[in-house]
From TrEMBL:
Gene Ontology MF terms in the entry: hexosyltransferase activity
Record keywords: Transferase
Superkingdom of the organism of origin: Bacteria
Glycosyltransferase subfamily 4-like N-terminal domain: residues covered: 15-203
Species in which this protein is naturally found: Dyadobacter luteus
SUPFAM superfamilies: UDP-Glycosyltransferase/glycogen phosphorylase
Protein name, per record: Colanic acid biosynthesis glycosyltransferase WcaI
Pfam families in the cross-refs: Glyco_trans_4_4, Glycos_transf_1
InterPro entries referenced in this protein's UniProt entry, alphabetically: Glyco_trans_1, Glyco_trans_4-like_N, Glycosyltransferase_grp1
Limits of the Glycosyl transferase family domain: 218-387
Length: 415
């Protein structure tokens, strides 16, 4: 197949949507498909263009057999709702020359758009009419719903315009794919035909991310002993997670010198968290950069418990990508989610983590105390088993590849 992928995030970004898009494209190219990507200069989750790309403008590169077109964009140092909108629209405008170039260069079987940003789907719809390709809109995050529920955008008229644009994109896409049952239900509630919705969950390379002993972990590298208790949060330090509760919980454990909070990541909320920890005089909280992918198993093995935190309003909009790695590593995850959400239901059904009320410091403290106890081994075993049976990278991508091939049957002959 000839596949055109359009998304703002891509490799070498280590976390979030870019990681999954990069892995998917590299895998498809390895299977012999011709994959072309239109994306931005890498900037996430640091919200700074990565050093190797600074000063670059439009350019083409080949990564793991994938043809990648990079486009410049505005990257704000301080992420606000308005600056984020400008950031996303500068990328949309910046990609126009590449769309024009590809329109006259070759035809594609599939145009695959990654949402968010949700409005990226407009250009692929126009392109597909001219290029005669099928359109897959892949939803990693219901961005407009999240902006409304988190209070990031309060102007009702503006929200209605965005919901209208989103509806137009989804209804005119050949397929709408998404990552969880909860998000599929919400998409169906937008009057989207269930027959055109695919489940395309995020995956984990369970052969690379696997359980390791404490001796094989990064404990010695960061000065921890086997007797220390490590509470780990790794990933994006953003607004949806409600990470302030980590600082509140750490205050409770100040009197227990063997309990350490290790925060590995970056993002728009990092400076505030660092400031909160400093103002509280906490000595049991450490902040570190994201670790490279090849160290991920060793990082995850360092932890006694892992934190997967979200605000109440986001608990059924986003399925945290960090959870797949934690499960594959056989980690004991503390997951904040409300009953009735996909996240709550799957953790509860397979007994593979500790559930806690979102945005509650006391609930988080109680969950940490449970996780540091002696009864978490079964949760760890169940976590690894679920990752192997349900989240394997090869099985998920092989299934989606098959569905793509079915989608384009009979299309190539018209070229």
């Amino acid at each position: 197949m000839r596949i055109l992928v359009y998304g703002i995030n891509y490799s070498p970004e280590l976390t979030g949507i870019g990681k999954y898009t990069g892995e998917m494209c590299a895998w498809l190219a390895k299977q012999g498909h011709e994959v072309t990507v239109i994306t931005a200069l890498p900037y996430y989750p640091e919200w700074q263009v990565h050093p190797n790309y600074r000063g670059k403008m439009w350019h083409r590169e080949v990564m793991e057999g994938v043809e990648v077109y990079r486009c410049p964009l505005y990257v704000p140092q301080e992420v606000t709702s308005l600056k984020r909108i400008i950031h996303e629209f500068t990328f949309l405008a910046s990609t126009l020359p590449i769309w024009f170039l590809l329109l006259f260069r070759k035809k594609f079987d599939i145009t695959f758009t990654i949402n968010p940003p949700f409005h990226l789907g407009l250009l692929p719809l126009l392109f597909s009419k001219l290029n005669r390709s099928k359109v897959i809109s892949h939803i990693q995050d219901l961005q407009v719903d999240a902006a409304k529920d988190l209070g990031m955008i309060k102007n009702e008229n503006f929200l209605n315009i965005m919901f209208g644009m989103e509806s137009f994109i989804l209804k005119n896409s050949t397929v709408v794919s998404t990552i969880s049952d909860g998000m599929q239900r919400k998409i169906e509630m937008k009057d989207i035909n269930p027959a055109k919705i695919w489940q395309f969950p995020n995956w984990v390379d369970e052969q690379t991310i696997k359980p390791l002993s404490k001796a094989q972990s990064l404990r010695s590298e960061f000065g921890f002993t086997d007797a220390d208790k490590v509470v780990l949060y790794s990933g994006n330090l953003g607004e949806k997670q409600g990470l302030e509760v980590i600082i509140d919980a750490a205050k409770t454990f100040q009197s227990q010198p063997d309990v350490h909070f290790f925060i590995s990541g970056t993002g728009g909320g990092k400076e505030r968290l660092v400031r909160l920890a400093q103002d509280a005089g906490l000595t049991n909280v450490q902040f570190h950069p994201l670790q490279p992918y090849e160290k991920l198993s060793a990082l995850l093995a360092m932890a006694d418990v892992h934190l997967v935190l979200q605000k109440k309003s986001a608990s059924d909009l986003v399925l945290p990508s960090k959870l797949t790695g934690i499960l594959a590593s056989g980690g004991c995850a503390i997951v904040t989610a409300l009953p009735g959400t996909t996240l709550y239901d799957v953790i509860n059904k397979y007994n593979m983590g500790i559930l806690a009320e979102p945005e509650s410091s006391s609930a988080l403290v109680a969950a940490i105390q449970t996780g540091l106890g002696e009864g978490a081994q079964l949760l760890r075993e169940n976590a690894r088993k679920y990752a192997v049976e349900h989240l394997g990278k090869e099985q998920i991508l092989r299934k989606v590849e098959g569905r793509m091939e079915e989608l384009v049957k009979g299309v190539r002959g018209s070229y």
